[in-house]
Amino acid sequence: MSGPTSQGRIDADAEPKIAATPPKQWSVERLVLVVIALLVVFANLPFWQATLASRSFGDPKTWQFLLSTALLIAWLHAVPALLLSTRLTVRPVLTLFVLSALIAQHMMLHYGVVLDPSMLRNALRTDVREASELITPRLLANVGFAGVVALAIWRIPLRRQPWRRALGIRVLTVAGVSVVGLGALLLGFQDFSSTMRNHKELRYRITPGNVIYSTGRVLADDLRDAARTAEPLMPIRTASAAVGQKPRLLVLIVGETARAMNFSLNGYSRPTNPELSKRPIINFPQTSACGTSTEVSLPCMFSSQGRADYDETRIRASESLIQLLARAGMRVVWLDNQSGCKNVCAGVEFKDMTSSNTDSPLCPGGRCFDGVLVQGLREIIDGASKGPAHDTVVVLHQLGNHGPAYAKRYPQEFARFKPECTKAELRDCDRDEIVNAYDNAILYTDHIVASTIDLLATQEQRFDVGLIYVSDHGESLGEKGLYLHGMPYAIAPQEQLAVPMVWWLGGTGVRGWGGVDEACLRRRASQPAHHDNLFHSVLGLLHIDTARYVADRDLVSTCRRQRSAP
Fold this sequence. Notes:
Elements: H1 2-14, H2 28-42, H3 45-52, H4 60-84, H5 90-111, H6 117-124, H7 128-132, H8 137-155, H9 163-198, H10 209-227, E1 236-238, E2 248-255, E3 282-288, H11 294-301, H12 312-317, H13 321-327, E4 331-336, E5 349-352, H14 371-384, E6 392-397, H15 431-457, E7 464-471, E8 476-477, E9 483-484, H16 494-497, E10 498-504, H17 518-525, E11 529-530, H18 532-542, E12 544-546
Parallel strand pairs: 2-6, 2-7, 3-11, 4-5, 4-6
Antiparallel strand pairs: 1-12, 3-10, 7-10, 8-9
Helix pairs in contact: 2-4, 2-5, 4-9, 5-8, 6-10, 14-15
Membrane topology: Multi-pass membrane protein
EC number: 2.7.-.-
Transmembrane segments: 31-51, 63-84, 96-115, 135-154, 166-189
């Protein structure tokens, strides 16, 4: 009995084993080219949509353009990737390419933004609270898909080769890819160059190159700015106060993402300014912004150069209006309900209203409504009443209409236009719902500005009081397929450039501000104005003389009865 059983066991044990087939190893070059090809086809949908929108697929030239452009884009991405990649670095490099490409594609498809250096700078300066509002299920799905692709990249075994052989293969691959790329350029040069010349923004729709290039530009500019010596401070002179003249209290409200065409003061059909329309304000209905993002507009609007002499590096190296006012001896306070002052208030009294009001009913969920700014101004005024009054300038930096979560910018009692969009994804809402939420936020801004005017009016016995409200930029709400803001200035639509501006110079007229002719100022307000006017107009109102002051940019210079420089 034991014999056969034992023999059977021996025979079984003696059966030859089939060795497992080792997984096929890839070269670094193959992995790079495959991933780049997939990105060109599947992660550049915004670019392909824009470039092919007006072309017919029945035209052979369309297919020639498509092929040559795809090969050219692949070449422009493959060469840097090949130069950066070794067996140790290729996986991290390609993972970064995939992640940045899919996130960029999501932002461009869903919001219509263009990822140029100014947009990337704005994104890199965004605080955690703002960034969290852009984290939607669709964005997480794209990140998750990028993770799956990255996992596949990391699981592919790579071939080991002697360094001389590896170098030779790499040189030949780069040369071969370059020959194909140059051939594609020659094949479609006329069509491609014409398209790029007439639609320069298209280059910032090519991923992941747009993200990599724009991020590099931002970092290089920051290093250059850090190394640049600040421009010398210009001498300033403040006019002596007249006998019996009261100190001045000027409030500058920096709006956020409010566009002029949604202000009923400017002819909008909805009553979005019910409170301001009942106050003696001076409205400037034709005001243009200096930029299409806070990161650009804020430094620009508080600079002497503005858009007319725009030089971003020089603006960031120059003394801002806020800093100049403080140097002139005024008390200057910046109250912030946003993501900071973009360095224009460096060295000036600053207060983050959200972090200092965490227990306030105005701050549900850790994000405050703009009512905290009025509350903070009241505290400053109350504190000033305990001592001698001084010339004071207070800046209120609003959260305003910052998107995409417009419905989170106002208390529910201001939700008068319904139904409102309350979803994380704007494209999940009807356009009417988006506009309703946006207009409700405008209603709340109307209330904030009117409440500030009412508060200042209680101080007219102690101060010459005044207020200037102006938004930093506008917003797209689906027009031309665009949402949010941040388009390059040269091609930005009016929705992002036309901003509201309102002045109030006391309830008893403007005579307390150096004898300004109010009727003249109202006539001037009906003409075009710009962020460029802010720096010089404030100096004119406060009678501060400096070489940076330009009378032609001062909105009140022609309406001052004495008609003299400040």
